[in-house]
Every structure is written in structure tokens, then in C-alpha cells.
């Protein structure tokens, strides 16, 4: 097991349902100061507040589900200049390479995810700088004007 209690990171995880451990006991909404589970829907104001606190968006989507679709929250992260940890060989990888910044992980590989989180934390300023520099590209790509241009040719 790979444990790093000294890692300077806080996880805020939105999971809109009860969480149960393998033994069937229910997990409490907050594990510690470093891990917080949000178990209900957020208001727009709450969502905006959490986004403004986010240094990195971790999106370990399964490839089978996200091979041919993109994440709305991933687009929001890119347009806000937030680096992303994403699953390789998905449309998220294409999006990040076009207008974002981040690190790819292997599908369904928890150890790779943990290693990439450590890497992101160790180089967060570098990734945030690149993400902020590319945010304008993401904003332009996802703008109403670009949508109409694509729609009408």
C-alpha cells in the first residue's frame, strides 16, 4: 500500500450517494482534514466556491465510459485554468492536449493514479502556470461564437 500522510494535499470529492466500505459499514462524510466527501448536490454558489479552491481536478474516468465523450467538469477546469489528471486514450486526453494542462493515467490503475497525484503535487506551480496560459484557448474553443461557427460551418 502506498501511503503519504505528509503530502500537502486536500481532496474534496463529490459523490452524490452514501459511501460504504468493503465490510458494509457506512463511511462518514469527512475522513480527515485532508479528505472531504460531498454527498449531496451543490448549489451553483457552492460549486463555484469549490472550483475557486481547486488547484487540480482529478478525473480518473473509466476509458470504456469516456473513450468517446468528454467531461463537462473537465471543460470547466480547462476554461478556469485548472490542471487535470485524466485517463489516457480518451477524449479528455485530446482536450487536455489541445487546450489544457495535466497528466494522463492508465485506465483503472490506482497505483498510477497515486503516483500521478504525487507528481502533480510536486510540480503544481508548473502545471497551474501552463493551465492558466492555455485557459484562453479553452475559453475560445468552448465559446458561443465557436459553437455557432461549428454549427453553421
From TrEMBL:
Report domain Glycosyl transferase family positions: 33-124
Molecular function (GO) terms for this protein are:
glycosyltransferase activity
One Pfam family hit: Glycos_transf_1
Tell me the lineage of the source organism.
Bacteria, Pseudomonadati, Pseudomonadota, Gammaproteobacteria, Thiotrichales
InterPro entries in the record: Glyco_trans_1
Q: What class of enzyme is it?
A: transferase
Q: Which UniProt keywords are present, listed alphabetically?
A: Glycosyltransferase, Transferase
Q: Which domain of life is it from?
A: Bacteria
Q: What is its EC number?
A: 2.4.-.-
Q: Organism, per UniProt?
A: Candidatus Thiomargarita nelsonii
Any keyword Transferase? Answer: yes
The name this protein carries in UniProt is Glycosyl transferase, group 1 domain protein
Amino acid at each position: 500500500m502506498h501511503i503519504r500522510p505528509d503530502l500537502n494535499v486536500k481532496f474534496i470529492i463529490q459523490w452524490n450517494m452514501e459511501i460504504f466500505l468493503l465490510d458494509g459499514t457506512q463511511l462518514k462524510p469527512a475522513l480527515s482534514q485532508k479528505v472531504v466527501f460531498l454527498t449531496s448536490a451543490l448549489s451553483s454558489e457552492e460549486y463555484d466556491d469549490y472550483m475557486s479552491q481547486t488547484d487540480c481536478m482529478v478525473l480518473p474516468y473509466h476509458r470504456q465510459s469516456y473513450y468517446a465523450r468528454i467531461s463537462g467538469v473537465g471543460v470547466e477546469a480547462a476554461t478556469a485554468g485548472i490542471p487535470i489528471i485524466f485517463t489516457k486514450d480518451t477524449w479528455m486526453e485530446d482536450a487536455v492536449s489541445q487546450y489544457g494542462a495535466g497528466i494522463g493515467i492508465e485506465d483503472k490503475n490506482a497505483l498510477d493514479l497515486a503516483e500521478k497525484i504525487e507528481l502533480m503535487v510536486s510540480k503544481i506551480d508548473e502545471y497551474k502556470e501552463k493551465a492558466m496560459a492555455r485557459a484562453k484557448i479553452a475559453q475560445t474553443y468552448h465559446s458561443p461564437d465557436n459553437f455557432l461557427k461549428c454549427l453553421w460551418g
